[in-house]
Design goal:
Length: about 230
């Protein structure tokens, strides 16, 4: 599941008294939000990445088979309009902007396509890869300059994490906030290089997770992140 690195994980805890890291959820999916998140000074800009017909697309919405539509829950959008691709996003982002890329879907070609694009367009950029499809992360474990965050969104997936990593490991964990009890947070902090949580869109949830010693929070609320950074 990866070779430990001598470099600290980009999300690793910074020590007592330091604030949790601010991660702008889906801000990289749209260039105006990217600019706003960069202006705030968030620690990481997060976005979703899909491999679709040999193209690395930056979007949250899913495709609908052969139909020219995109969807998510109760939302539909036209699929024939231009879509942001990874190379364009990398070109638009400031050189110092750190990226957290959520790898979506199960396409086996996603990791090698991502590797090639990063090598061509962003060889020096700080990048963390996150996914609930852990096979994607396993395939990217040895990419130079890239760190991993195993995403956990259910009790079943949390149980699988304990089985996979019985000992301390050099990767981060991104876990749904509702799964984080005091006991779970302490156990994760004793094993993982860093622990981040999502979704964190209220001051109350942010305060609860900060009290648990979480290293980073992923939020849709740029106002909340602005307050955290400042």
């Amino acid at each position: 599941v990866g070779v430990p690195t001598t470099l600290p994980h980009p999300l690793a805890r910074l020590g007592p008294g330091r604030r949790v890291r601010a991660i702008a959820h889906r801000a990289g999916n749209h260039l105006p939000l990217l600019r706003e998140a960069e202006a705030i000074g968030v620690d990481f800009v997060e976005f979703d990445l899909w491999l679709w017909r040999s193209r690395l697309e930056v979007r949250h919405l899913k495709t609908l088979g052969p139909l020219p539509l995109l969807w998510d829950r109760w939302r539909l959008a036209p699929g024939w309009t231009p879509r942001l691709d990874l190379a364009s996003l990398l070109a638009a982002a400031r050189p110092e902007t750190a990226l957290l890329i959520d790898l979506k879907g199960r396409a086996a070609g996603l990791p090698p396509a991502l590797r090639d694009t990063l090598a061509r367009h962003a060889p020096e950029r700080r990048v963390v890869l996150c996914s609930r499809t852990w096979a994607h992360l396993d395939a990217c474990a040895n990419l130079p300059g890239v760190a991993l965050a195993y995403s956990v969104g259910s009790e079943r997936q949390l149980a699988a994490l304990w089985r996979r990593f019985p000992d301390p490991f050099p990767h981060a964990v991104s876990i749904h906030a509702e799964l984080l009890s005091e006991e779970t947070a302490a156990r994760l902090k004793s094993r993982a290089a860093a622990v981040i949580s999502w979704p964190v869109n209220t001051p109350e949830r942010l305060a609860r997770l900060a009290a648990l010693g979480i290293d980073g929070v992923t939020s849709d609320d740029l106002g909340l992140l602005r307050g955290l950074v400042s």
